Amino acid sequence: MTALRRFGLAAPLAALTLSACGLNSIPTSEEKVNAKWADLQADYQRRSDLIGNLVSTVKAAAKQESTVLIGVSEARAKATSVNLSPQDLSDPQKVRAFDAAQAQVTAAVRPLLGPMIQERYPELKSLQNFTDLQTQLEGTENRIDFARRDYNEAVRQYNTTIRTFPDAIGAKIFYGAKPKVPFEASAGAQNAPKVDFGA
Fold first, then answer.
1. Contact present, 86 and 43 (Cβ < 8 Å)
2. Contact predicate 34/154, CB 8 Å
3. Mean pLDDT of 43-53
């Protein structure tokens, strides 16, 4: 009877000790990171789909402007060829490669979003379909920015959780948790885009 009584007292104490070691908070934080990553992937896919529609519209309206089409299409192809799974979020090189591919798409799309389009491609600006797609693409770029911030915040919380006591104990012993990699600002992101109407 004494051993049974000890077990009865030890079981709740063990459960309390294990819960204090982050057994629940680690997977919860990791799932939040994965969910935010999925949201970001959905926005990147939306942008990719919109670019396809935008390219088709531009092709129909202005066949002579092939440089715009080629630049955007090539950047889109490169971006869709670089994949990043939730398991890769702890690998800084893979995250940087994915981010660099997406930054190329942003750079290729940027000329289509600004005032340069009115000067260089006025016949495109007059098309309602192009205008609608341009607005959607601009909104998608904003959604991507917000999704990146949300993802980075989830990564910050996860990385803090696995490094702070007492959760760090459960993170190392039970999960072998590794820090996730946040997105960094793209090289030159602090510089305003250069608009050249002479080209």
1. no
2. no
3. 85
